[in-house]
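Progress against Task 2.4 (sequence-to-structure conversion) is shown through the following example record, which the project officer requested during the mid-term review.
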Amino acid sequence: MQITFWGVRGSYPVPGAATVRYGGQTSCVEARSAKGECVIVDAGTGMRALGNKLMREATGPQRYNVLLSHVHWDHIQGLPFFSPAYVPGTRIAVHALLTAADELNSVIGGITRHEFFPMPLEAVPAVFDFHQVEPGVEFDLGPFHVIPIALNHPFGSVGYRLDCDGASWAYISDTAPFDQVIHKQHFLKGPEPLSADDKVSLDAMRQALVRRLDGVDTVVYDTHFLPEEYARFPHYGHSTPDQAIEICVEARVRRLVLYHHAPSHGDDQMDQIAATYLAKGAAAGIEVLTSFEGMTLPIGGEFDPPERTNPGVGPA
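Structure tokens generated for the chain above:
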């Protein structure tokens, strides 16, 4: 199994001169089995380039599985620009939390209304199927065994552990840490004080995450904020690299990949972040890499350095 990063930013896309090396597209990761089966995790603007590659590979209509963490803009904005959706006979299965699944048809339909987009959802040739996922309820997508994991994010988010080809990786985005923020907070006022029930709920969520990550080869983790930034924006529902390292060390993870980079972090700052946390990870006994568009990683086996196939514009 291998994974390829097509979008690594959070919040909104920032392609341009300041993000050439790490990329500016939003959340989208492709997982491939040894036999070539594909699962797409999140549908941010990076999904456009992935769709173009899938079109070049396809010999006819295909079925695609998309796992959504949630329906914030930066995780769904690529769906209307996914080229296979315009091929008659294509089926696209979208898997999401209940609240997201219920809303997804209206959400995607809303962003493709005639006022905003030339092709309304109901006119797209592909057939979209929406499927509910529930944290802890496991299911299979071809050779991929999928375990949804509840995360701490405004109005809910879900991560995924995927096992295939005798190896495992996990996608943990978007999430805040589990001791300060809960998903029901009000943005204008900041985090609400945690009740006793909140603390029990968050502790259970954290324990479940660590349990699901136990022994996973590679974890892709939302590390949007640096510690000093998180102190200013604790209610936005994102983590820091230090918090991710803590979780991954506790779960005995082999490799952590920093992901969902803040749009304000240009290439030079990302270089500093990558170097700092590579060293911090080594001190904690874990390999820490920093994701970039075009980065392809083998999952399982001996560690290989990340492959950069076409820096700055996604994989070729």
